[in-house]
Write a structure and sequence with these properties.
The protein is α/β, with parallel strands linked by helices. The protein folds into two domains: 319 residues, ANL, N-terminal domain (Rossmann fold, 3-Layer(aba) Sandwich), CATH 3.40.50.12780; 99 residues, GMP Synthetase, Chain A, domain 3 (2-Layer Sandwich), CATH 3.30.300. It is built from eleven helices and 20 strands. Strands 4-3-5-6-7-8-9 form a seven-stranded mixed sheet, sandwiched between helices. Helix 4 crosses helix 5, helix 6 packs across helix 7 and helix 7 runs parallel beside helix 8. The longest helix is centred in the N-terminal third of the chain and has 22 residues. The two termini are 34 Å apart.
Length: 426
């Protein structure tokens, strides 16, 4: 599939596109209603360019349909759920049929194969297992390839280092920032990664840069590859770099890409920067039609030296919304706001400060409390601080360092409040 002649690939995409639009129209009320409003029927999609006629889908559509409103399969056919951060307290939920899971394993298998992973490899999978798609997505893909998988999940750095060494691990999967942290800790505990058989890293779930890649490769002696994906579309395995490391190849036979102007929504030509929009070509349980990823990139016009006909996307460095990714976890400032405002004694003035120390992201939330509260006992302030910490963790899944500050200490801005100070230098 990676090397299909272009004409055949486009033909396959069109056939799959027509079938998926039909399925979404017949089975998902929101898609049908939006198409009806525009006087469109699935039969109107006669060419791939016609896709531009279809309405977009956005993250808030998933939130509004919480939990199962966009499913196109009855629940008895759904065999797995995953979830990701929404813009408020509730996550967005995605579902898979068994065939969807098989497709997902296949794109992950192709991802591993693209960067040279094979069945004799020992894969340490340090993406989180659970509602996050990283853990199970990489797990089944590596198993389908026939590699030996260590489902260690995220965290517990000392144990990660012990296993890397004792199991003679050759491939690691985790976020690039966590790997930088691993490099540092491993050196501190006297196990320099350069001395281990580790050869390949499959890194994604957050933005990183070419200079981070160079640092990782120089300090650990491995090759670092960029993998891209998002829960709404399938999870990891939407696009993956090949050995040439020139940006991830999009699995176009499964996901149809467009680049749009984030302001006007107009489709832009290859080679132009804009927002990536994806349509799933095979997903049964939850087809996505023209999903606005909010990720800013370019579809590279040149073919890659590897011979794949799949187009590459340029490394994703920023988004067209305010979503932050902290320790691989997606975070919207509005989630913090929702968590803070639920508590009595706080004012609607807060600031989120993100930094990176020793490779690990830190999250601090400063929040103004009312003057009555501020002059209250230390005990009461501590209690509120704890309560806010719990509330943030339960909404976002992230532990934050909460700092209560006196009224009017946080800088006011004349226009939009500056809610986020991101001091990380990637
Ligand atoms: O992060 C899926 C994933 C898991 C991808 C493991 C790769 C490896 P979500 O939690 O839904 O899914 O977050 C998706 O993360 O829209 C991007 O903004 C960002 N992202 C994912 N991969 C990359 C990457 C998973 N390689 C959101 N570079 C996406 C930059 C990335 N950003």
């Amino acid at each position: 599939m990676d090397f299909l002649p272009l004409a055949r690939l486009r033909e396959l995409q069109l056939r799959r596109m027509q079938a998926i639009v039909q399925r979404a129209y017949e089975r998902v009320a929101l898609f049908r209603q939006r198409m009806d409003e525009r006087g469109l029927t699935p039969a109107r999609v006669r060419s791939l360019e016609d896709v531009a006629l279809l309405p977009f889908t956005v993250k808030t559509d998933l939130r509004d349909a919480y939990p199962f409103g966009l499913f196109a399969s009855p629940l008895e056919e759904v065999v797995r759920f995953h979830a990701s951060s929404g813009t408020t307290g509730k996550p967005i939920v995605v579902g898979y049929t068994q065939e969807d899971l098989n497709d997902w394993s296949q794109v992950m298998l192709r991802s591993f194969a693209a960067c040279g992973v094979h069945r004799r490899d020992i894969v340490q999978n340090a993406y989180g297992y659970g509602l996050f798609t990283g853990g199970l997505g990489a797990h089944y893909g590596a198993e389908a390839l026939g590699a030996s998988v260590i489902p260690i999940s995220g965290g517990n750095t000392e144990r990660q280092i012990m296993v890397l060494k004792d199991f003679a691990v050759t491939v690691i999967c985790c976020t690039p920032s966590y790997f930088l942290h691993l490099i540092e800790r491993a050196a501190e505990v006297g196990v320099p990664l350069k001395d281990l058989p580790l050869r390949t890293g499959v890194f994604g779930a957050e933005p990183w840069t070419e200079s981070m890649r160079q640092r990782i490769e120089a300090e650990s002696g491995i090759k670092a590859y960029d993998i891209y994906g998002l829960s709404e579309i399938i999870g990891p395995g939407v696009a993956m770099e090949c050995r040439h490391q020139k940006g991830p190849h999009l699995f176009e036979d499964m996901f149809y890409p467009e680049i749009i102007d984030p302001e006007s929504g107009a489709v832009l030509p290859d080679g132009t920067e804009g927002e990536l929009v994806l349509t799933t070509l095979c997903k049964r349980a939850m087809p996505m039609i023209r999903y606005r990823t909010r990720d800013i990139t370019t579809l590279e016009p040149e073919l890659c030296a590897c011979g794949r006909t799949l187009r590459r996307i340029r490394r994703i460095g920023r988004r067209s919304d305010d979503m932050l990714i902290i320790r691989g976890v997606n975070l919207f400032p509005s989630q913090i706001e929702a968590a803070l405002l639920a508590a009595e004694g706080t004012l609607p003035h807060y600031q989120i400060i993100v930094d990176r120390q020793r490779g690990l992201d830190t999250l601090e939330v400063q929040v103004e409390v009312t003057s009555e509260f501020f002059s209250d006992t230390v005990g009461a302030l501590e209690k509120l601080q704890k309560q806010l910490g719990h509330s943030i963790e339960s909404v976002t899944g992230l532990r934050a360092d909460v700092r209560l500050v006196a009224p009017r200490t946080l800088q006011r801005s004349e226009g939009k409040a500056r809610r986020v100070v991101d001091k990380r230098k990637l």
